[in-house]
């Protein structure tokens, strides 16, 4: 990699968001002048970070795959982390994305430069420690949402003789064989890990805090026959993908607070409770069965059969909180000590991935921007007024709890490309969402969330504890997401022109290319701030 001081686009993060953006920049805009910076040693994001035993995708891969890179070869309906990562590498290779990636480079900050209409991006080479700058027209934050492990700091941590490992920082070759293992947490990560390792450990003590709704669920092998069908019968994989999409989308019925919502939640929670009480020992029922509304947190699809594992004598479940760590045990509030050779933190992720210092117009920080809005937010999850040419993928309130996250990533990529096309084609120098549009979107979003179960207090990481606002969830349906990213909102942007602009002022009528040349009328007047 050369010094790489300038490129049209800089993308931060080489997970599915960064990959999708890179592929579509090439596909749709024929833009090859981009660089991806990634702080890890390898690309893949979530799927390279989470190498704990048992890690797998829980949305069928026919849907949890990129629409422009269908893959008929998955061995299971919901394949393992390793297979998803292989798929990632395959797509990255096919699109020659890897040539654009600089790994082990951390993004530290970015400043908007009014004079040149560019971003100056501050980066640190994690190998040499050297700090350098990279200038670009368009800056894309694709840093993920579940990337920074929650910290774990209890008295005595330093005196512990064994290893303490977070599920998203699994050490290659770490074995739990014949070990007394402590697992902290009971989310999807813990529920995949425990069934995968229980048989080789000496014991597992699992510490939980808030119960989860575990949903009975199966995984299937995909036989050679079906793989062939997916590969050779035109449209079959696409049809299958669509059916899964529609099926999963029916879970949206569960999130509304109205009567229909209550009814479908009752059905879903009864099924989940029956599963837990039917498959786990009675002594654990009080620990397992939640009181909050189902759907408030992402449900745990129990494909790995964690709940039946609770029958195994090697596994002990407790909600007695750990208060201190000792050399080879953990001490709990009730005064008990539990043996520990290894402590596995399945404790989830912290809301720090947007802490990087980003400064827009007038040197205003993103923190100040959010303070003014009262919460973490972005127009359509992708942009903030005052931060021209800066976009998020998997940004604020783009999270999906019931379907494939890649749907949101792909569709937001599409929206971003619609918006930045004039910039990359040299017909405008900057684009920015209008302030009133961002305000209006945010009001609509908050009032939509108000009408859902996501306001129930279930202790989910969706809730930003500093503001009490949900920073994660997209409260509308996938159809709405699709519509709003493909068709709506063209008037919410203001462009600053580069001369000459006349050729661009006539919107093209072709529906599919609605965005091609559509530039806000303010460009004509040479005014870029639409407010
Ligand atoms: C264990 C696990 C299982 C999941 N399973 C599913 C599932 O079944 N279905 C589903 O829909 N979703 C699932 N998800 C959500 C998943 O995160 C998304 O589906 C998707 O992979 C997110 O892609 P991303 O590129 O946006 O983020 P990530 O994959 O997290 O990639 C972000 C990248 O940015 C890098 N980065 C972050 N900050 C910086 C910085 N400052 N400088 C440089 N680089 C940086 C990170 O190192 C990372 O590589 C799961 C998440 C986890 C943690
Ligand atoms: N494809 C999949 O199947 C899959 C696999 C893994 C993860 N994911 C997704 O990725 C996200 C993160 O999952 P995750 O399981 O890693 O994290 P998570 O869902 O946030 O779960 C973390 C769990 O740890 C508990 N916890 C945290 N600190 C604790 C402490 N000090 N003591 C006791 N318990 C503590 C939390 O309890 P509280 O609720 O009380 O805070 C929570 O139950 C989720 O959206 C999940 O659905 C999906
Ligand atoms: C922007 O603000 C930061 C923090 O207040 C300050 O350190 C920096 O010098 C400012 N930059 C400019 C160009 O004013
Ligand atoms: C929107 O997402 C869906 C599902 O991933 C995909 O089929 C569709 O092509 C996406 N639209 C675009 C333009 O990326
Ligand atoms: C969000 O967190 C705050 C602070 O911890 C809490 O007071 C509030 O009830 C939570 N809200 C929800 C909806 O969980």
UniProtKB/TrEMBL annotation:
Lineage: Eukaryota, Fungi, Dikarya, Ascomycota, Pezizomycotina
Cited PANTHER family: L-ORNITHINE N(5)-MONOOXYGENASE-RELATED
Stretches of the chain forming a coiled coil according to its record: none
The keyword Flavoprotein is assigned to this record: yes
Organism this protein belongs to: Aspergillus lucknowensis
Keyword Flavoprotein listed: yes
Similarity annotation: Belongs to the FAD-binding monooxygenase family.
SUPFAM superfamilies: FAD/NAD(P)-binding domain
Name of the protein described by the UniProt record: Monooxygenase
